[in-house]
Amino acid sequence: MLLNKNIKLILKYFLGPLVFLFLSYSIYRQLLKQPNWLGSLQQISQAITGPQRWKIWLVVILMPVNWGLEAKKWQLSIRQIQPISFWRAFKATLTGITMASFTPNRIGEYVGRILYVEEGKRIQSISLTIVCSMAQLLITTLAGCLGVFYLKWYLHQQIPASGQSWQSLFSVILSGAGVFTVVLIIFFFRIARIVKISEKMPSLNKFLKYVKVLEDFNTAILLRILFLSFGRYLVFILQYSLLFSVFGVLMTWDQTLSGISVMFLVMAIVPSFTFLTELGLRWEASIQILEFFSFNTIGIFAASLGIWIVNLIIPALVGSLLILSVKLFGNR
C-alpha cells in the first residue's frame, strides 16, 4: 500500500515537471535545426515592440479562443458518456497537446484527454474524440480543395510560364483530396448508421462495444461540431493574416485564404513524427506554396514560427504543468 502511494506521488508531482523540461529542451533542439530561425526570432522580437505589436498580442489572445473552440467540441461529444465542465474539457485539450508532442501524428492527444474521463469510459471516449478530429479534417480538406482550385486558376492567369508541372501536380492533389473529402462527408454524417449496420456482423462485437456510443450522434450534434471546427479554421486564418501583415508578407485576402488552405491540406496529408518536427514541414510547405504570392521568405518564416510557438508550444508547456492536477489512477 505504501509502495503504491509512493509511486502515485512520484508520477503526480514529478511527471509534469519532467515533461515540461523535456519538452522545453526538445523545442530548443528543434529550433536549432531550422534554417533562418535566428533571423525569424529577431524579427518577432522587434515586432513585439514595434507599432504593430497589437497584432502580435491579438494573435496570442486568439490562441485560447482557438483551443477553447476545440475544448467545446470535445465537451459536446464526450457528454454522450460523461458530462464535464468546459474548464475540465479545456484542461484535457491542453494536456492532449502536451502528449501529442511526443507521438506520431499526434496520437498522444487521445491519451492526454482520456485522463480526464472516468475509468471504465476512457476507451469509449477515444471514438468520440476521433469524431472531433474527423470534423476538423473535413473542414481542412474541403477548404484545401477550394484553395487548390484557386491556385490552379491563379497560376494559369498570372504565371502561365510556370509550365504544366505545377498544373499537373495540383490536378492530382485536387482529384485525390476531392474524392477523399466526399467519402469523409458521407462517413461523418452516416457514422451512427454505419455503427448500427456493423452490429449485424458478429466478428465485430468485441470492437463495437467501444464505438456503440457513436449511435447517439445525430445530424444536429454533428453540425454543431462541424461549425465549431469551422470557427477554429477561421481563427487560424485570422492569426496568419495578422502575422503576415506584421512581417510584411503582402497578399490579398483571396491569396491568403487559398495559400493557407493549401498549406493546411499538405500538412494534413503528409504524416509527421511529432508536432515538434512539424516545424520543418510547416516552414517548407509555407515557403513552397506562399512564394507564388510573395517572395518575402523571411516574413513567411517568421509568421510560421510565430504560429507554431503561440498555437502549439505555449499550450503544450501549459499542458505539461496541468498533468499535476490529473487523477492518473482510481482510488483502488
Total number of domains: 1
Strand count, sense and barrel status of the largest sheet are: none
- Beta-strand proportion: under 5%
Structural class: mainly alpha
Task: Kindly state the percentage of residues in helix.
Answer: over 70%
Radius of gyration based on Cα positions: 21 Å
Unreliable residue runs: 1-11
Number of strands: 0
Shape: globular
Q: Number of DSSP helices?
A: 13
Order of helices and strands: HHHHHHHHHHHHH
**Span between termini:** 10 Å
Structure description:
- By secondary structure, the chain is mainly α.
- It contains 13 helices and no strands.
- Helix 3 runs antiparallel to helix 10.
- The chain starts with a helix and ends in a 10-residue tail after the last helix.
- The N terminus is likely disordered.
Question: What labels describe this entry?
Answer:
13 helices; single chain; globular
